């Protein structure tokens, strides 16, 4: 026989031989539950033991009493009752032991009943003594939730676990957890509510619980009456139709205080008006776990965004652009066009280093951000623009034809041609465009980017600020360019470069006033190469600063050698590349070379192209002043007349020499339509130089008529094939010792 009186709270149901906690009873900490149930079990076990002893003592012989009923196995009803009571004692003893193990935090036994395994999942006892007030038992399976976060489980599954735990601990009450976080997305979950009700709760609590709600409550839990609460106006029918009359809600906020959603418990008629202390703890722990999970998800998404986006412009980076291109190819996204094609466009800003090196990286960053905004404003939603390099952007354009791609590029050239306002300055930026078409130029991302890269290089070689489609011949050119770049790097390190020298003479006397150092490359297979064959590759590869310094050292070493050989009065002119001229430590490098080879600074002349000066007049002037501080070093503007806009600034440049570009000399004294104009320009430059106290040198003199006219115009000096060809240093020694050229003096 079993006890028929069953307490309402913590009751035990013995149906089918299984003991379970009453799911309708109020929840308590696991220690107190184990204590109460353990006490009840102990009482029942003691009672059962007494009854077993009474039965055993009633008939020591074990025989059946007269008239006693015997079952089919020949056992008396008394013996059957005795065995049943003994089984019950053993079963209840095991349950009591299981609960003690649960309360003490001991691991489960293998044959633990199903109800106890379920209870272990929902509540875990604290470590230490049972009933410890200083270390209360966790109310939810916190460790399991944290393990899911650490394992990278989807945020939806993590929050599902949290809300399921809340419902399990609040037996008979429904719960929903809703989030609306821009970084983590939209989330609404509930184990027991239908979708319509979940969505309604999400619309009211998904972002923030701030604002009037018509609710009341203590601390951070808002208790609302559905019938009167402003919060549930417009949604009461959904709640009341399912018997819910009251809600307990609390906000989910991140560590920075940003509210991202809420936890809502739905209460029916007859349930408590307000949450109990224990229920509050359950809700608080659920909110804490949800906050951690959402914060981690936000961090994960931010890191993922950073891994696939450019930090400066916010654009996708190269990796994301490649991924989108591969998806477009594989999934046939462009198939909706009549002729499915894709254009991969590389946009390389021309001479962007000028801005960075002259105005600073902050100005350069502002230009890059402005360029990215202009490009984005032109493109469609289906297009992708990414920053794929320092000054390079990549575009992915689903198009119907190459003509469509050309039209987009033409529009981009137009919007980039407008001036940029940066730090009170008006800057002009141009770009070179290279276009590769899918499927004509490649069937995968790698080949398409390679095609676009070859095309943009061709665009730069054609003078920049232009666009080029990829052609099949560019593949061979790209391979040759790559091989040339590799060999250039090897030549820099192994001494593959040599200098030839071209004499410069005074036109009135024929005296050699100096020589210009001209770079040559002894290629192991192609022989002696002129700069026109490799300088474009060297510039694109960023090798010019290294090559420029190498030329400076080689020239300094040679002028030192000539002086040691008794060749006096010779000045060596060295060309500075535009990229070399922009380095802030250029003057220090020149000074170091002068000291290293023991030169008098007056033996050295530095030539800067006009193009390198007009990009940023102020920075160019400052750089030239630093070079002039090396007392004796002469400065020359090379290719003068090609920059057009520098005439107005010429008087502020601390220069000594103007070199007239050979394009104005080649038609001098000729009969072509432009000959008179060239003569006028040359005459003007000579007079300008004379008025400013500068010496003027004419480059590219190749005919007797040109020479005579220059002498008549009183040009100071000249150089060219007519006067002297570039030759190795050893072939020039005798002429330098002689000090002059007879073919000049006799004109």
Summary keywords:
747 residues; alpha/beta; Beta-Lactamase; Alpha-Beta Plaits; 4 domains; 8-stranded mixed beta barrel; 5-stranded antiparallel beta sheet; 24 strands; elongated; disordered N terminus
What does this structure look like?
The chain is α/β, with parallel strands linked by helices and 747 residues long. The protein has four domains: 12-59 and 71-122, no CATH class; 142-307, GAF domain (Beta-Lactamase, 2-Layer Sandwich), CATH 3.30.450; 336-471, Reverse transcriptase/Diguanylate cyclase domain (Alpha-Beta Plaits, 2-Layer Sandwich), CATH 3.30.70.270; 493-745, Alpha-Beta Barrel (TIM Barrel). It is 46% helix and 18% strand. It contains 25 helices and 24 strands. Strands 15-16-18-19-20-21-22-23 form an eight-stranded mixed barrel, surrounded by five helices. A five-stranded antiparallel β-sheet has the order 4-3-7-6-5, with helices on both faces. Strands 9-10-8-13-14 form a five-stranded mixed β-sheet, sandwiched between helices. A hairpin with a 3-residue loop joins strand 16 and strand 17. Helix 4 runs antiparallel to helix 5, helix 10 (352-359) runs antiparallel to helix 11 and helix 16 packs parallel to helix 18. It starts with 11 loop residues before the first strand and ends with a helix.
């Amino acid at each position: 026989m079993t006890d028929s009186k069953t307490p309402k709270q913590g009751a035990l149901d013995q149906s089918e031989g299984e003991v379970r906690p009453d799911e309708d009873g109020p929840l308590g900490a696991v220690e107190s539950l184990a204590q109460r149930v353990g006490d009840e079990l102990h009482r029942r076990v003691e009672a059962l033991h007494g009854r077993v002893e009474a039965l055993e003592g009633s008939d020591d012989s074990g025989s059946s009493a007269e008239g006693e009923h015997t079952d089919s196995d020949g056992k008396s009803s008394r013996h059957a009752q005795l065995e049943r009571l003994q089984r019950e004692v053993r079963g209840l003893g095991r349950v009591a032991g299981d609960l003690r193990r649960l309360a003490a935090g001991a691991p489960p036994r293998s044959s633990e009943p199903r109800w106890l395994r379920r209870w272990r999942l929902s509540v875990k006892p604290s470590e230490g003594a049972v009933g410890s007030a200083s270390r209360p038992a966790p109310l939810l399976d916190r460790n399991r939730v944290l393990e899911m976060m650490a394992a990278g489980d989807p945020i939806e599954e993590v929050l599902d676990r949290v809300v399921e735990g809340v419902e399990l601990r609040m037996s008979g009450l429904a719960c929903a957890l809703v989030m609306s976080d821009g970084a983590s997305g939209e989330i609404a979950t509930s184990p027991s509510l239908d979708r319509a009700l979940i969505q309604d709760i999400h619309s009211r609590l998904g972002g923030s619980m701030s604002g009037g709600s018509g609710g009341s409550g203590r601390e951070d839990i808002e208790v609302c009456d559905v019938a009167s609460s402003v919060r549930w106006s417009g949604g009461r029918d959904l709640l009341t139709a399912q018997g819910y009359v009251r809600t307990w809600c609390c906000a989910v906020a991140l560590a920075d205080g940003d509210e991202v959603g809420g936890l809502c418990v739905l209460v029916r008629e007859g349930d408590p008006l307000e949450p109990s202390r224990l229920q509050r703890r359950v809700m608080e722990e659920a909110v804490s776990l949800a906050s951690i999970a959402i914060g981690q998800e936000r961090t994960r998404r931010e890191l993922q965004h950073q891994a696939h986006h450019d930090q400066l412009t916010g654009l996708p980076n190269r990796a994301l652009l490649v991924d989108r291109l591969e998806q477009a190819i594989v999934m046939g996204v462009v198939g909706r066009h009549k002729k499915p094609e894709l254009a991969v466009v590389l946009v390389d800003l021309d001479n962007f280093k000028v801005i960075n090196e002259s105005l600073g990286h902050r100005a350069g960053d502002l230009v890059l951000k402005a360029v990215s905004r202009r490009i984005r404003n032109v493109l469609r939603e289906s297009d992708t623009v990414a920053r794929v390099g320092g000054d390079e952007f990549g575009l992915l354009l689903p198009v119907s034809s190459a003509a469509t791609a050309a039209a987009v590029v033409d529009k981009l050239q137009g919007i980039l041609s407008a001036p940029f306002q940066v730090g009170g300055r008006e800057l002009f930026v141009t770009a070179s465009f290279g276009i590769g078409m899918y499927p004509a130029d490649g069937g995968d991302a790698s080949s398409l980017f390679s095609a676009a890269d070859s095309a943009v290089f061709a665009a730069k070689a054609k003078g920049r600020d232009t666009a080029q489609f990829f052609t099949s011949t560019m593949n061979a050119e790209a391979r040759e360019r790559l091989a040339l770049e590799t060999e250039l790097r090897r030549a820099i390190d192994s001494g593959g470069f040599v200098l030839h020298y071209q004499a410069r003479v005074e036109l009135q006397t024929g005296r050699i006033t100096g020589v210009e150092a001209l770079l040559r490359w002894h290629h192991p297979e192609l022989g002696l190469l002129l700069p026109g064959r490799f300088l474009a590759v060297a510039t694109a590869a960023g090798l010019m600063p290294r090559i420029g310094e190498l030329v400076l050292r080689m020239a300094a070493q040679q002028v030192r050698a000539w002086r040691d050989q008794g060749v006096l009065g010779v000045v060596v002119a060295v060309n500075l590349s535009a990229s070399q001229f922009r380095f802030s430590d250029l003057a220090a490098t020149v000074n170091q070379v002068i000291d290293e080879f023991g030169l008098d600074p007056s033996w050295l002349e530095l030539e800067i192209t006009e193009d390198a000066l007009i990009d940023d007049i102020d920075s160019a002037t400052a750089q030239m002043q630093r070079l002039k501080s090396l007392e004796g070093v002469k400065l020359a503007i090379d290719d003068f007349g090609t920059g057009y806009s520098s005439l107005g600034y010429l008087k502020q440049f601390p220069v000594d020499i103007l070199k007239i570009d050979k394009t104005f000399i080649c038609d001098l004294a000729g009969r072509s339509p432009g000959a008179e104009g060239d003569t006028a320009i040359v005459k003007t430059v000579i007079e300008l130089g004379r008025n400013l106290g500068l010496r003027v040198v004419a480059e590219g003199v190749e005919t007797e008529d040109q020479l005579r006219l220059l002498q008549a115009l009183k040009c100071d000096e000249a150089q060219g094939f007519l006067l002297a060809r570039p030759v190795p240093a050893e072939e020039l020694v005798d002429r330098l010792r002689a000090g002059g050229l007879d073919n000049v003096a006799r004109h």
